[in-house]
Amino acid sequence: MAFFLCFFVLFLASSATACDRCLHQSKASYFSKPSSLSSGACGYGSLALDLSRGQFAAGVASLFSNGAGCGACFQVRCKNQAICTKEGTKVVLTDLNPNNQTDFVLSTRAFTAMAQKGKSQQILKLGILDIEYKRVPCEYKKQNLAVRVEESSKKPDYLAIKFLFQGGQTEIVGADVAQVGSSQWNYLSRNHGAVWDTSRVPQGGLQLRFVVTSGYDGKWIWAKKVLPADWKNGVIYDTDVQITEIAQEGCSTCNDETW
């Protein structure tokens, strides 16, 4: 646990200068094949559709943040005023973009959503657009944070879970699991993207606690009853917790105006 707390302090220190809501200038391209949906580095697979209604994106390493950026929401708009709307569109980060030529690779639906009415094909023909973007809160008003038990889990020796519908402007940077009613916590490790796992699986029903950060703030959140004793692979369980925290900026100036 000492290692985890040390990691947590270091993470917060590194986040102190983050300007998540500030406006950034870059470029964006789009996925030409829908197969990218099932191969995202966050591990969402087809669930990316439920998270974003098809408005998803791959982000560069600084946005992906070794998986901590999975599920983050961004408002993106292109700068060509002749064919683009002022509002742009909102996307959910579901994948890593290894190509530093653009900060984002958007789904076709998200890419064309930046266009003015009747100009979707013009945007697609351009292929790469100059954009500006900023981090915005994710909103799942009727959906709590959920946990999916991955197919690779093997009771009673191995548990892998994936976090879904993470709201607010937050990142999950640590997670623990314990038997319901117990104070004996075992830490979960980030396997990849939004997937966490442990080979020290408590018996019985399971509760979770995790650390979320937003800007330079961080807090523990408890989900007191998450997985039943007979938890099953492939099933999504409601945590009965909603995350709505908004980032507190550490930068001195930041364009936080509503588009």
Automatic annotation (TrEMBL):
One of the Pfam families matching this protein, by short name: DPBB_1
State the GO CC annotations: extracellular region; plant-type cell wall; plasmodesma
- The residues forming the signal peptide are 1-18
InterPro entries under this entry?
Expan_Lol_pI (IPR007118), Expansin/allergen_DPBB_dom (IPR007112), Expansin_CBD (IPR007117), Expansin_CBD_sf (IPR036749), LolPI (IPR005795), RlpA-like_DPBB (IPR009009), RlpA-like_sf (IPR036908)
Recite the UniProt keywords alphabetically.
Secreted, Signal
Q: Which CDD domains match?
A: DPBB_EXLA_N (cd22276)
Cite the Expansin-like EG45 domain residue spans from the record: 39-143
Domain Expansin-like CBD span(s) in chain numbering: 157-239
Q: Which GO BP terms sit in this record?
A: anatomical structure morphogenesis
Cited SMART domains: DPBB_1
The family database entries (PROSITE patterns) matched by this protein are listed as:
EXPANSIN_CBD, EXPANSIN_EG45
Q: Where in the cell is it found?
A: Secreted
Would I find Translocase among this entry's keywords? no
Query: Record's family?
Result: Belongs to the expansin family.
**UniProt protein name:** Expansin-like A2
